[in-house]
Each structure stands twice: as structure tokens, then as C-alpha cells.
Design goal:
By secondary structure, the protein is mainly alpha-helical. The protein has 8 helices and no strands.
Length: about 180
């Protein structure tokens, strides 16, 4: 035991951490991982995810750049206008660095929109577009993808109504009289 104690003290010497604190933190990390990975694997994963250089930008800043790039790429005016319209609502709500926006905040934003499920999913897709662009430009960490934890809205499919020519003419006459 004495040899193990002296070796542990020597290993911790360069970082000036008391042995009992190191043992406590090791146990806490071990419990948090729950057998899914070793502590070294977890730290490596964390270091890879957090060490990459990013230039944090806010939602409005990234949106402005995204729309400019889409125009330069030749996206249709309809697409750029639709993307801008949806994402401006999002950008007004989140003026902070995009990487600080959580999945639950995005989910709450989507649920707060007074729109149907299909439109909510269109907003979700636009936000995903913004996040993907931010990852590509390194405005958020490479592993930042809160939309993984934001469920798509359940769309209720209604049967498509098909009108006969006579029904269309009848409706046309009715509207013409009003």
C-alpha cells in the first residue's frame, strides 16, 4: 500500500492535486460514465469536440451571411425569401451566440409558433439549414446539432379532395355572385 501511495503521489506531483481529491473525481467520472467508456476515452472525445477553433457568432449574424451565400450560390428568390422569413423570427428570439441555444429552447420556440404541423416542420428544416451552415463555417462546434433532440411535428395526413368539373363550375358561379 505504501508503494502504491507513493507512486500515486508522484504521478499527481506535476499537477499539484491532492490524492484524495483525484480519487474522488475519478470515482465521480467513473459513475457518470456508467461503463459506457473509459475516463480517458471520454476526455479524448470531450477534447476533440471542444478544442476545435470556432468563431462564435449570433443567430442574426449567421442568418445574414447564410442568405448572402445562398444568393451567390444561385438559390431561387423564392427559396431565399422563405428561408429569410422563417429564420428572421428565429433570429429575433435568439440574439445570443448560436452555440448557446439548446434543443429545448428550439423546441419551445417551434411550439410557440401559431402554425400547423407542416409549417412547424418547415421552420425546423430552416433552423437545421442555419445550424448546418454555422457548423460548416465553424461558428459552432463540429458536434453541435441540437435538432437531433427536437422532434418533428406529427403531421396528420388528410385525404385529397378531388372536385368534378361540375363542382368547380358551381363553386365558380357561387364566388362570382358574392
Amino acid at each position: 500500500d505504501c508503494t502504491a501511495y507513493l507512486q500515486a503521489k508522484a504521478a499527481l506531483g506535476p499537477i499539484q492535486v491532492r490524492l484524495e481529491l483525484a480519487a474522488h473525481e475519478y470515482r465521480l467520472c467513473h459513475d457518470l460514465l456508467g461503463g459506457r467508456a473509459s475516463i480517458v476515452e471520454a476526455v479524448r472525445h470531450f477534447a476533440e469536440a471542444k478544442v476545435e477553433p470556432v468563431t462564435p457568432k449570433t443567430g442574426p449574424e449567421i442568418l445574414k451571411e447564410l442568405l448572402e451565400v445562398r444568393k451567390k450560390e444561385g438559390a431561387s428568390n423564392v427559396h431565399v425569401k422563405d428561408l429569410g422569413g422563417r429564420l428572421r423570427k428565429f433570429a429575433v428570439e435568439f440574439t445570443c451566440p448560436l452555440s448557446s441555444v439548446s434543443a429545448s429552447q428550439i423546441h419551445d420556440f417551434l411550439l410557440g409558433l401559431d402554425v400547423g404541423a407542416r409549417t412547424r416542420n418547415n421552420f425546423r428544416t430552416s433552423i437545421s439549414n442555419l445550424v448546418g451552415f454555422a457548423r460548416q463555417r465553424r461558428y459552432v462546434p463540429r458536434l453541435y446539432n441540437p435538432l437531433i433532440d427536437v422532434p418533428a411535428a406529427k403531421e396528420i395526413r388528410k385525404p385529397v379532395e378531388i372536385f368534378t368539373i361540375e363542382e368547380m363550375r358551381s363553386e365558380e358561379r357561387r364566388v362570382g355572385k358574392e
